[in-house]
Amino acid sequence: MINKMRLLTVVGARPQFIKAAAISRCLKHNQYSEVEEKIVHTGQHYDSQMSDTFFSELGVPEPSWNLHAGQIKDTDHQLGAMISGIKKIIADWLPNCVLVYGDTNSTLAGALAAASFGVPLAHVEAGLRSYRSTMPEEINRVICDRLSNILFCPTNQAVENLNSEGRYDHVHLVGDVMYDVFKREMNLIRSENLENVDFFSEKFVLSTIHRAENTNDPIRLQCLADALSLTAESIGVVLPLHPRTRRDIERFNIIFSDRVRIIEPLSYKELLSVLARSSVVATDSGGLQKEAYFAAVPCVTLREETEWVETVESGWNILLPPTGGTDAARDISSGIMMALEKRNKTAPPEIYGDGNAAGKILQVVLNL
To answer: By C-alpha distance, which of 143, 163, 139 is closest to 153?
Structure first.
């Protein structure tokens, strides 16, 4: 009997479910029959609309373990529970490799757990840097890259970032796994009629807000509400609301104009369909910035920096942070309206690979 290579995939948040889908689908091919993948879901996103629907829509195998860590409100305790849970799984299942994605606390937990056992660690989306040392995601990225045995980079810039930090060995430029999934799903969506998005017909802005730096600060959060409200005077604004953001809006009594259309979170397919019909994206999400770029929709990023610097350099993304006050709100609204002019005029350069990042990743993992 042939012993299969055991691959433990750690996920916990929406973008990671999407990235994991690319790898899991690729593993269904016969050439990877010697690999056995099991998924641990940390439960960092535990709302069914932010978690369960993504697994079912994208065809990701049901997680073998769910740590339900999202029910723990304290961030430090939540991280500790994730690390403890993943360490127990590693001790019981004895994987040959732990695969982590992105820059969330689930990523960090998987990296620390693997390192404590000396299990080879592979990081997908390695080398991204915002160079903002106080940003939780930046801390997670740097620590994970330092601990990783294999570094899978989505862009040339990510490779250069690692090289500048002295990392040259086991650094692989593979492209972006999110682009793999985007290409496949967008082709399917164009032939489908999704009932929840049929009402989007005219020009509109698609906005999402969920970063702690924006939602935990009532001044920044109200600035975003004011900016979107100003924009809604000229063009439609659709805001699918993250559960945590909804709670913070209620907690801080943040006021939006009635013209801003606040809706429940969208499934991945629904989000892509709405994105394809949108005129501009205004977001603080790293994932949606890229998806906007893939869809050739101009983006306004509601942060001081972005890890996806190529989107800014190409002119398809601008940074407008909600620093607070009337001027900042007006600047964001003006930036959104200026971005409208770019829609449908040109196509962005291809900088995220050829749509086969998952296959390239698995070829490296198989050679461990």
So the answer is: 163
Q: DSSP state, 29?
A: S
Neighbouring-strand partners of residue 97: 7
| Distance of alpha carbon 108 from alpha carbon 142, whole angstroms | 10
**Closest-CA residue to 86 (of 62, 117, 60):** 117
Q: Which two tokens stand for residue 248?
A: 């913070």
171: β partners? 151
Of residues 158, 207, 186, the one with CA closest to residue 310: 158
Q: Which domains does the chain have, with CATH numbers?
A: 5-176+353-366 (3.40.50.2000), 188-342 (3.40.50.2000)
Asked whether the beta carbons of 227 and 329 are under 8 A apart, the reply is: yes
Mark whether 77 is an active-site residue.
Answer: no
Q: Which two tokens stand for residue 125?
A: 């989306």
Distance of CA 110 to CAs 45, 99, 172, 295, 349, Å? 16, 8, 20, 31, 34
Q: Write down the pLDDT at residue 50.
A: 55
End-to-end CA separation in angstroms for the chain:
20
DSSP 58-115: HTPPPPSEE--GGG--SHHHHHHHHHHHHHHHHHHH--SEEEEETTSHHHHHHHHHHH
- Give the Cα-Cα-Cα angle 38, 44, 50 (nearest 5 degrees): 90
Report the pLDDT value the prediction gives residue 192, as an integer from 0 to 100: 64
- Global confidence as pTM: 0.90
- Given the residues 41, 45, 123, 210, select the one marked as catalytic: 210
Question: Does residue 346 or residue 224 have the better pLDDT?
Answer: 224
